[in-house]
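Interim report, section 4.2 (structural modelling).
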Amino acid sequence: MTVLDVIQRSTDFLSRKGVESPRLQVELLLAHVLQMPRMKLYLNFDRALSEPELDTLRSLIKRRAEREPLQHIVGSTSFCGFEIAVNRDVLVPRPETELLAELAWSFLATLAGPPATVLDFGTGSGCLAIAVALKSPAATVHTVDISEAALVVARANALRLGAGERVLFHAGDGFSVIDPGIAFDLIVSNPPYIPSAEIVTLEPEVRDFDPRLALDGGADGLEFYRLLAAQGRAHLKPAGKLMLEFGEGQHGEISALFTNAGWTVETVVKDYSGRERILIARPGD
Ligand SMILES: C[S@@+](CC[C@H](N)C(=O)[O-])C[C@H]1O[C@@H](n2cnc3c(N)ncnc32)[C@H](O)[C@@H]1O
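Predicted structure of the assembly:
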């Protein structure tokens, strides 16, 4: 069977299984098996696949048909141009979060004075903390996560990407493990924000493969925003900022929550598809 035959057949198969963008998924899996950039497949449509290559591809396509995320199958994803390893212990980093990373390192670049100190609350794979550290070469980024298993992944990512010295990991529940003596220049977070009862309605790739701890934002999805609004200020410098990602449609409630808790909401930033996704607030006036 040739590359083109395999692409066509597997695309039909994944499409019947309800997988989104089936052709792209097949091409990415095939490129992974053949260890070539996806675009190079187009120059190799007539290449015949060997039996071992076909066997490997079949098993990967089967996993994708069972709705295992592509990123878990290939073992990594790209985040702000950095390769972040992922598995079932961490949320697969999403493109919207790249925008949060960009806002974070752009803010740090405006700061004068001693090297900045940042907190990434709920670090998961470490994607945000690592990207911010690598783009802000003097900054120290503390991270916290309640999942020890996630921190194993995050630590390995930081080491592999050369950020091991400036990204520090704290295992535990929220601010309880953060040194109260540190005043951060910036707190970033993409906390769990799905209302508990909505988790069953999510796509299987998310519902069955992202850790529940990374999704569940409590009954109304806002539990972690309340916690950050109540406790975040004590950990920030007076001129510091809080940058938070949130889910579609949550911006009104979250802005109100922070304003009512005495924060100044500076702006709500839209993602590339025009939806409000990131809140930037400062401790007060
Ligand atoms: C939505 S994921 C975000 C992961 C990563 N920052 C990203 O953007 O891809 C939220 C993370 O918060 C962590 N988390 C959940 N409850 C927590 C808590 N009480 N304290 C600290 N981290 C928590 C989860 O384990 C998960 O890794």
